[in-house]
């Protein structure tokens, strides 16, 4: 029992510190966060307290109002903090990968499965909706990356639906703050075992590509493949 209480006491300062850090980060982008939270808490508590006086139970309604005010404040704070975080991440390289890591259970994310010299990148997520390719970068250039990645996967997972999304604020693009919601709205067509099998096949494809003994840079003139090397079929 003593060990459990000690661990809980040690965890509380960490949570409070994290909340304080989140508040400071949110306040940089949202200057009114303090006033908004105070207004939500005071108004919620005041409404329930007033109702309590009207019906003759100010103590009970006051306690209930305090708890609901705390809950409402926490919900508003979470949403505004999330909005501020997305605003700071917008346009930053790798922002889509960070969102994909927090989509939820049942999704397996592989960042940067394709990239070009201009640092346009394609990330891959696998879940019950199938395979989702998420691209960030120049819309015209990433289309070629998406097409090449689809062609490569078609040889191994031809029976799995593939969705492609381009993160951005233009036409036919998905804003970063709506990426998670968009993915969760995709229809679920695969079972758990099918998702696992798809991940295994894609992982094997990646392992085969990473383990191929190809030299970096251009191949020297006159160099021949060893006799024991892989054969083309």
TrEMBL record:
Region called Disordered, residue ranges: 210-233
Domain of life from the UniProt record: Bacteria
Residue spans of biased composition, Low complexity class: 219-233
Coiled-coil zones: none
Keyword line: Membrane, Transmembrane, Transmembrane helix
Sequence intervals crossing the membrane: 33-53, 59-78
Pfam families per the UniProt record, alphabetical: DUF4191
Protein name: DUF4191 domain-containing protein
């Amino acid at each position: 029992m003593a060990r459990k209480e000690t661990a809980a006491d040690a965890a509380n300062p960490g949570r409070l510190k994290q909340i304080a850090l989140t508040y400071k980060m949110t306040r940089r982008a949202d200057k009114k966060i303090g006033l908004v939270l105070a207004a939500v808490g005071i108004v919620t508590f005041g409404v329930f307290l007033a109702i309590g006086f009207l019906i003759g139970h100010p103590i009970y309604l006051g306690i209930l109002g305090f708890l609901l005010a705390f809950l409402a404040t926490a919900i508003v704070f979470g949403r505004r903090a999330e909005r501020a975080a997305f605003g700071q991440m917008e346009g930053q390289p790798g922002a889509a990968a960070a969102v994909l890591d927090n989509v939820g259970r049942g999704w397996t994310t592989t960042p940067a499965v394709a990239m070009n010299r201009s640092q346009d990148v394609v990330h891959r997520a696998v879940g019950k909706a199938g395979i989702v390719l998420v691209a960030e970068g120049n819309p015209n250039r990433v289309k070629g990356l998406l097409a090449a990645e689809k062609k490569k996967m078609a040889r191994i997972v031809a029976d799995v639906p593939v969705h492609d999304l381009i993160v951005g604020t233009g036409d036919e693009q998905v804003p970063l703050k709506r990426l998670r919601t968009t993915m969760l709205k995709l229809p679920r067509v695969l079972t758990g075992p099918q998702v696992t099998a798809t991940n295994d096949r894609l992982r094997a494809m990646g392992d085969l590509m990473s383990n191929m003994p190809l030299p970096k840079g251009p191949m020297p003139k006159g160099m021949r493949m060893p006799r024991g090397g892989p054969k083309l079929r």
